[in-house]
Amino acid sequence: MTNWRRAQDRHFLQAIDAGYEAARSSKRVGRPPYPLRISSAGMCPRKLWYQRWGAEACSEPDAKSLRIFRLGDAIHDDIRRALRRAGFKGDIPTSKDEESELSIEVAFGDDESETVTGHPDAILRDVEVDGEVVDVLVEIKSIGPAGWPYLFKEGPKEDHIAQASVYATAADCTKCLYIYYQKGTSEVACWLLDTSVEAAQRAWEGWRKVLEAGSEAPPERAYEPVQEVMQGCSTGRKVLPWQCSYCDYAHPTCWGDSVTPDPTKAGKPRFVHSVNGEAVKPAPTRAESGWEAASVQAEDW
């Protein structure tokens, strides 16, 4: 019997992957400090600080990740076309090139401020909801099979609510429509919620921490090690939370040698901080961490 997995043509597989990776650009235009984006609402301020000051990411997206991103773009466009065909009016682009820009001002320090911009997925105008005509900010997310059940237990994710609520505040929308697309089965779930002033304020506070930190040292970490639990039982290990596993700066830039990567079947590493209370390795000093932000002086521009 033919083993069809082994019988694949490696030459063409490698060529396809190389084609995706050739389109990847890790270079950013200009010099630090790089601007903040509304799409970063709710993210760890320390991660945003590393991005802003040009820290080198610990990993680059591979060809599979790039295909996932492209699939997400296609899903966005397809849902927006469906909204148009359904008769909704407003700012409903059918591609990234048509997306409009929104901006907000983030105040920090004594009298400073910075403009944060972004491109919302869509804005529906004059929608009748419970007898009231409102404007609705649309947030579209594609999600894998593993995360799908959690949506029905916990609702839209906190960072998605923060992002949508900031866009809604900038666009004067009182409602946010969260549309989730399950990539494995093509199922769609929708929730219409009030714009969360609290979530928007938390996003503003995170950006303020980044801006007030300056260029010398990052803000405090937003996450700390947690007890690892498997099948309802403690493993005796403390690990970094899942947010750190998905962060491009977690190791070694942020946590240095105070954590050790432990590969998982899902592909994202689990970072082990301690076992039975004993540190895996001693934490490095700042000079030993392998990266320091360069102080950007006005005369350097």
Which secondary structure elements does this structure contain, and how are they paired or packed?
Layout: H1 10-22, H2 45-52, H3 63-85, E1 90-91, E2 102-108, E3 112-118, E4 122-129, E5 132-143, H4 148-154, H5 158-171, E6 175-182, E7 188-194, H6 197-213, E8 226-230, E9 233-239, H7 242-245, H8 250-254, E10 260-262, E11 270-275, E12 278-279
Parallel strand pairs: 5-6
Antiparallel strand pairs: 1-4, 2-3, 4-5, 6-7, 8-9, 9-11, 10-11, 11-12
Helix pairs in contact: 1-3, 2-6, 5-6
Indicate the percent of residues in helices. 25-40%
Cα shape: globular
The stretches of 5 or more residues where confidence is low (pLDDT under 50) are 282-301
What distance separates the N and C termini?
65 Å
Helix-strand category = alpha+beta
**pLDDT average, as an integer?**
88
**Number of distinct helices:** 8
Looking at CATH, which topology of the largest domain would you report?
Lambda Exonuclease, Chain A
Broad CATH class of the largest domain: Alpha Beta
Strands ordered across the widest β-sheet: 1-4-5-6-7
**Major β-sheet, in short?**
5 strands, mixed
Helix-strand pattern: HHHEEEEEHHEEHEEHHEEE
How many domains? The number is 2
Q: Which band does the percent of strand residues land in?
A: 15-25%
Rg (C-alpha, Å): 22 Å
CATH architectural category of the largest domain: Alpha-Beta Complex
- How many strands in all? 12
